[in-house]
Amino acid sequence: MEGIEDIYNRKFKKLRLSLLDHCNFNCSYCTMGSDNVASKPQQKVDFFVKRVAKLHQYLQLDSIRLTGGEPLLYHELDVLIHELNKLDIPEITLTTNGFLLAKQASKLKNAGLGSINISLDAIDELTFQKISKRKKVQEVLNGIETAIKVGLNVKLNAVIMKGINEQEILPLLQYAFKLNIPIRFLELMAMGHLHEQAASQIFTKDEILSSIAQHYQFTRAIRKASATANYWQTQEGYFFGIIANESTPFCHDCNRLRMDAQGNLFGCLSSNKSVYMADEDPEELLKQKLQYAMKQKQSLKFTGSSLSMLEIGG
C-alpha cells in the first residue's frame, strides 16, 4: 500500500502515540493548576498494536514515540513495547517526565525500547517545584542516570519560560554535558490554556543562545530533514538543541502524525479537530482519514490550539 503526500511533499513517517490522558506532574505549561486524575480508562495493549500495525502497513513508519500524559503510568508499558517491536518499525522511543524511570528503565530496555526523551525544566528544587507542582527533582535525576546506565539513548528536554526558569539554562546545560547527553531547550508552545496567553512567557531561541554564549562558544550543526530541533556544537564537542516553534518554525517538512489514547488522529497540534481511527477501517476509509489529518498541517508556522498537551503528548 502507498501512503499519502501533500503539495509540499510531506508524508506521515513518525507516529506520536499518547497512551493515556493523565500525569503524575502538574506542569504549569500543560495544565491549569488542578491535580490530574485519570479521566478515561486505560486502553488494552491490543487496542494500540492493531492501530499502529495498520498505520505502519500503509505509511511504512520510520519511528513511533510513546507519550502521554505520562506514559510510565501505563500499566503494561513493557508489554506494549515488546509487541510494537514485532511490527518492525525501525525506532521505538518514549517521552517521560522521568519520575518513575529509575524503577522501570531496565525493564523497558529489555522490552526493546531504544531511546528516551526526559523532560527536565529545572535542577533547582524550588524552581522544579514551581513548574511541576512536585518535589524531589532528585527522583528525575536518578531516572536519567539509571536510563543511561542500562544503555538507553537519552536526551533531555527543557521548556524555558520567561521570568520562571531562564536562569536554569546553564545548570541544565552543564548537567547534560557532565553526562555527555544532548539537551534541547524548547520555546513555550501556545497550547491548551496558554493558547492565547503564551506570548508574554516565551523565552526565544535568540535569548537562549545569548544566555549560552556568555559561557560557551559554539557553531551551528546541519539540521536533519523533518527535525524539530536545530543543534549547535560547543568547542568542547558537546551538543545542544533548540526547538523553536515560534522563532524557527519547522512546518515545511513536518512528517509527524499523532494519535491520542482513544484512537483519534491529529495531523497537527495547530488543530484540535480529530478523526477517529478504528482498527477495522478498510484501506480506502483509512486513506480518507489520513488525508483529512494531512490537511491540518500548517504551510508556514505553528499557530497553536486549545488542544491540551496532557491529552496529546509532547
TrEMBL record:
Residues of the Radical SAM core domain: 7-229
Keywords on record: 4Fe-4S, GTP-binding, Iron, Iron-sulfur, Lyase, Metal-binding, Molybdenum cofactor biosynthesis, Nucleotide-binding, S-adenosyl-L-methionine
Record has Nucleus as a keyword: no
Catalysis performed (reactions): GTP + AH2 + S-adenosyl-L-methionine = (8S)-3',8-cyclo-7,8-dihydroguanosine 5'-triphosphate + 5'-deoxyadenosine + L-methionine + A + H(+)
Cofactor: [4Fe-4S] cluster
GO molecular function, one term: 4 iron, 4 sulfur cluster binding
PROSITE patterns for the chain: MOAA_NIFB_PQQE, RADICAL_SAM
A single GO BP: Mo-molybdopterin cofactor biosynthetic process
EC number: 4.1.99.22
Protein's recorded name: GTP 3',8-cyclase
Biological classification of the source: Bacteria, Pseudomonadati, Bacteroidota, Sphingobacteriia, Sphingobacteriales
